[in-house]
Amino acid sequence: MSVHSDTFALELDGLSKEYPGVRAVDNVSFTVEKRTVHCLVGENGAGKSTLVKMLTGALRPTSGKIYVAGKNHTPTSPQEAREGGIATLFQELHVVDELSVIENLTLGMEKKRFGFFVKSDLEDRVVATLKAIEPSIDPTAPVSSLSVAQKQIIEIARAASSGADIIIMDEPTAALSEREVERLFGVIRRLRESDVTVIYISHKLDEIFELGDNVTVLRDGKHIVTKPLSQVNGRSELIELMIGRPVFQDYKPRTTVTDEVVLQASGLSNALLKDVSFDIKKGEIVGFYGLVGAGKTEIARAVFGADKYSGSIALNGKQVGHSPREAIAAGIALVPEERRTQGLFTSLSIRENIPVMNLPRMSAGGLYRSADEVSAAQEYVERLRIATSSIDKHTEKLSGGNQQKVVFAKCLFSQAELLLLDEPTRGVDVGAKTEIYEIIKNLADQGDAVAVFSSELEEVLGICDRIFLLFDGVVREELANGPNIDISHILNVVTGGGEAAVQ
Amino acid sequence: MTSVADFLPQKETGRRMSDESFITLLVVGVAIGLFLLASAVLPNFFQFQNLVNLVTNNWAVISLGIGVSFLLVSGNFDLSVGGVVALSGVLSVYFAQAVGGANPLSSGLGMPYVLAIICAMGGALAIGALNALFVVRFKIPSIIVTLGTMMVARGVAQVITHGSQRNTNLPDSFGFLGNLTMFGTSIKLPVVLMVVLLLVAVFIEKKMVFGRVTYWIGSNPVAATLSGINRGWHVTKLYLFSAAIAGAVGILLASEFKSGFSNRGLLMEFDALVIALLGGVAIAGGFGSVIGMFFGAIILAVVTSAATGLVLSPDWQFILKAIAVFLAIMAQTWALALRNR
User: Fold this and answer.
1) How many CB atoms lie within 10 A of CB B318?
2) CA atoms of B89 and B50, how far apart (whole Å)
């Protein structure tokens, strides 16, 4: 039993989570005061999501303790976490469109006897909670008629009426418009007034300054600081705390960059992109950096013809067709964001995966040359150093890094002039990461053009010659990489800050 | 403990037999084992003629199984083939029947037989095109689409035959194809066509780009599209091929019996599905082979014919098929899990 149970809603004491070879959360201790909005910030991989998963019972800590209102909190499932007083709002909505508001609110909490519902005060309770949070929503309306923000409020109401004292919100504004964000903030403030503690996670620093009482910064799994936001000296101090050190970058200017434009994209627009224009030169590695939802994947998919767009894309001066097939034929290859669902044929072997993007090279008159397939597989396994006992191994059974190398092999086999790499090292261990960076650099040195779409700043700063900063579907700025690059400026731009916000 | 895999040949240079060859060998093994078991129990079962009959009696289902297997490998169902068999058979009769018979069921369009066959094939391909249209263009699950077109095809056949059959007023040439015996033996043309079709299918599956593309699509349709494969067109071709095979089967059966019967090929779509599954074709797509499907048909044939040879009455055949399917699929899942442990 903790002694501070009356002032602190949540206490973490030496919390750690270890994975083989890495400490995702490393001896983190801090406290969250009752009736506050407590913000949690950090770069990708700082340990935020691991921490949240331990609070909600999805992961169990390797060591350390969690106290909720003074009581030891050891949930083994989200259900148990909720009973212990912590409810979570995830980025994706978990409401049932076909049911009414009130049915959604009581879902899973209904009182039952012999499989039949029995009357209880539950409905009155949830309606009262909803009224307190947002009186404008009709409890009998079907959820499908509500806006995204209203649906989010339904989720908040559900969390609040479950009796949770702490509600964790993970990027709740990712899908909301500006006006909806304002309303959500109103709801969060009213929650705070009704004795609920909110733990708020966001990449958007403006929101944090507008809403938060206190902030905790995590970096590399370690707790850096917890302090009132009133004592934080603006965005720049917060950014400094988040990076904490010169960002690791071993970028060396490359000599093979030419002036010859390979890809010219102009005025790309679709549901997310707004008038995106850029060019990529022969032998160059360009980076597209932005937060989740800034439009990186959308640009890659548009150039590859996988998504609809308006605007024009020309490779070596020739217009590229609007389908992956035509893009590949023109000389563009894509390493997709999700390798398991979009890149790999997991039920097939390495050998069977590699040739798919270049069938003309594998066949003559419709006849498939199996012998060439074997030699191609052997060549690429060796060239990309794919660690496997056999080229006939199912890609399903390879490690993340080796799976990614197989996807690379597929693209290299297509002999493309332009490679689009969407999150090329996501979920890949450090060793394989370095190897993949080597592969990318070698490709550019051989005269290919490479575009890296990444939400990891280190990655972009480490290998790219030129960097496009994205925010909200717009290319905000173009920078040449070099030793004097201003990292806090980059972070400021991609989190939505204008020039003026830099202090 | 040793696994089944230990007894199977391993190639040198670190290459290992694929799961697909493994399952095919397993299916072949089970088929041979069951045949020997039945031979040990039943007198007169172990005869060459009996072995031949197991294949020749099932030429129709095995032929349908080829199209169905390719589609399953691509991740799509085709339940319409039984209906197409009825439709094309009935159409070929209706088109070939002379004009002005004594009653509505004995008068047709009076086309020359060759033209009648071509038009009947057109009807079959129309069903295939309908399947492709709904599955590819409107993205409706193939199991629903082909269940619908199965009923459409049989329904049209039923209307044309008034729910009965047409077997009068046909030219003599009509019975020629279905009853032609080959090479001085009792083996009929349809059986020979089935064998040719099997060989071509195996060649396409193993040696041609077309076969390989089918596996890619079935294994991961999203990745296939992102790898530049024209998925919609490929699946369209598969549905057309499957319908064409079913159309030919229907025409040959109508010729063999010199009649167009709206209930012909009833439940054949399910037999074709069952032999494909027995042969190790994965219902989720991306896995399986035509050779496996063929031996799946042999397993089913041995089980049903052995059962009728035993004390059981033919009424038991559905139960036996059910048991065979459950056992075979459990055995395959188990063997694969053991091998890939």
Assistant:
1) 11
2) 28
- What band does B244 get if pLDDT is binned at 50, 70 and 90? very high
Cβ separation of B228 and A328 shorter than 8 Å?
A: yes
Look at chain A and report how many structural domains it folds into: 2
Q: Which two tokens stand for residue B97?
A: 């029947």
Q: What are A309-340's pLDDT values in tens digits?
A: 999 999 999 999 899 999 999 999 999 988 88
Q: Give A393's contacts in chain B (Cβ within 8 Å).
A: 16
Asked whether residue B272 carries a pLDDT value surpassing 80, the answer given is yes
Q: Tell me which chain A residue has its CA closest to the CA of residue B212.
A: A368
Residues of B in contact with A371 (CB under 8 A): none
Tell me the ipTM for this assembly.
Answer: 0.83
Instruction: Identify the residue among B212, B214, B226, B230 best suited for mutation to test binding to A, counting A beta carbons within 10 A and taking the highest.
Output: B226
In contact, A395 and A350? CB cutoff 8 Å: yes
Stated as kind and residue range, the H or E segment containing A419 is strand A418-422
Instruction: State the pLDDT at residue A87.
Output: 86
Query: Which pLDDT belongs to residue B282?
Result: 85
One domain for residues A390 and A332: yes
| B 257-316: CB under 8 A from A | 286-287
Q: Same structural domain for residues A149 and A294?
A: no
Q: Which residues of A touch B287 (CB under 8 A)?
A: 347
Supply the range of the domain harboring residue B95: 58-266
Contact list in B for residue A363 (CB cut-off 8 A) is 208-209
| Residue A418 and residue A363 share a domain | yes
Please check whether residue B305 lies inside any domain of the structure. Answer: no
| Residue pLDDT, tens place only, A88-141 | 887 666 788 888 888 888 776 666 666 666 666 777 878 877 877 777 788 888
Instruction: Give the separation between CA A171 and CA B135, rounded to whole angstroms.
Output: 38
Q: Which of the pair, B327 or A469, is modelled with greater confidence?
A: A469
Of A193, A184, A133, A199, give the one whose Cα is nearest residue A161: A133
